[in-house]
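Write out the 3D structure for:
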Amino acid sequence: MQITDVRVRKVTKEGKMRAVVSITIDDVFVVHDIKVIEGEKGLFIAMPSRKASDGEYRDIAHPINSETRDKIQSLILEKYQEVASESEDEE
C-alpha cells in the first residue's frame, strides 16, 4: 500500500483542529475528512468518524494495525508541516 497523494486544507478557526486532510491510496482509493488535531503531546490524526445512536463517535475508516496508522500519520503530519510553513512564508 502506498499513499500516493495527501491534500491538506488548513482550518483557521479557533479550537484544536488544525487541518482536514484527504489521502489517496495506490492512486485508486480516497479517504476524506482525516483531521489534524493539536493535542497535549503534539499533533496527531483522527480518522473520519460518525456519531452512533448511543452518542459515541465511531471511525468510518481506519488502519487495521499500528504500523499502518503510524505510516499514514507520519505522511500526513509531514505534509501538514510543509503547508503550514508555506503559509507562514506568505504572511
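The longest strand covers residues 29-39.
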